[in-house]
Write a structure and sequence with these properties.
heterodimer; A: Rna Polymerase Sigma Factor, Chain: A; Arc Repressor Mutant, subunit A; 2 domains; B: mainly alpha; rod-shaped
Chain lengths: 168, 144
């Protein structure tokens, strides 16, 4: 799929799940993440022709919508996160590889939730959004070097957390 | 050339797939986009109509403020006396040369003293050289 493609289905196939996951890190539930992605995507679709690289712009739209949502619903989100921690899966258990049990998947999600937000979003953009560090820099308005170093810190922190968890 | 080995943790993370996008969400997005396009078209139509209205009102105001010209039938906007339609404006004409010469000749004829003759000659000197032939005959030649 070309980035400049007007094929809505292709855009949703390519970026939909990663966008949902990206939004999910800020909002209280999967349904809320869907609302955020819906609002952001409609806005993005209207104005995508005006930007040079549409993919980072799409993620920026979702990030902005999620942060607005978070400010509006902060108290409710906090309550939901405390009440339902671990219950709402970020990942699809149906396509879990044989090497990754559901338990391991939950441990990864828990470790991701404990990461600092600045590191977590870079990790999500790079691993699941498949954005380059230059594109991530455009989304977050930081330098590519900052994006790369946040990614390294995130991986190191995640590795440490997962090793500690495995040792218990 | 060195190639960077993929981080095992990164490989492990990539194997996890995010929750898929539901058909319901896809439908909502498609509907939202078409609704947004319709709203945009409505807005553009409304903007164009408003612009046309503003232009129409402006044109009407300009026409009514400037008013009809002097050649129109009404009296609105006429500052000076109205001229009959089609008649060109007249310019105050200077007396023609022959009439002026007659005038000068008559003034000379009526002069009773030399001073009066000098005064008439001085008056017309910039225009003609005046030759007085007789009491009844005065010749004029182009002046300096």
């Amino acid at each position: 799929m070309q980035d400049g493609s007007d094929d809505l289905a292709a855009w949703l196939d390519r970026h939909g799940p990663a966008l949902l996951l990206f939004a999910r890190q800020w909002v209280g539930s999967h349904a809320d993440a869907e609302d955020v992605v819906q609002e952001a995507f409609v806005g993005f679709w209207r104005s995508r022709a005006r930007v040079r690289d549409a993919v980072p712009y799409l993620y920026r739209c979702v990030r902005r919508a999620a942060l607005v949502w978070l400010r509006t619903h902060q108290r409710r989100t906090r309550r939901e996160q405390i009440a339902g921690r671990g219950a709402a899966a970020w990942f699809d258990p149906g396509v879990c590889s044989p090497l990754e049990s559901e338990e391991q998947m939950r441990r990864v999600q828990g470790a991701l939730e404990r990461l600092p937000a600045a590191q977590r979003e870079v990790l999500m953009l790079h691993v699941w959004g498949e954005l380059t560090f230059a594109q991530i820099a455009a989304v977050l308005k930081v330098s590519p070097n900052t994006a790369a170093s946040r990614y390294r810190y995130a991986l190191a922190s995640l590795r440490r957390q997962l090793a500690e968890g495995a040792g218990c | 050339m060195l190639t960077e080995e993929p981080d095992p943790l990164e490989t492990r993370l990539r194997r996890l797939r995010p929750q898929p996008m539901s058909a319901d969400l896809r439908g909502r997005i498609a509907e939202g986009i078409s609704k947004s396009a319709r709203a945009r078209a409505r807005f553009l139509r409304g903007s164009l109509a408003a612009l046309a209205l503003v232009l129409l009102i402006s044109a009407t105001v300009i026409v009514s403020v400037s008013g009809p010209g002097p050649e129109s039938e009404g009296t609105k906007g006429v500052v000076g006396p109205a001229l009959p339609a089609g008649e060109p404006a007249r310019v105050q004409e200077r007396p023609a040369e022959p009439a002026l010469r007659l005038l000068a000749a008559r003034q000379l004829a009526e002069a009773r003293t030399l001073e009066e003759v000098d005064a008439v000659l001085d008056q017309y000197a910039p225009r003609w050289l005046v030759f007085i032939q007789t009491d009844q005959e005065v010749l004029f030649a182009p002046g300096f």
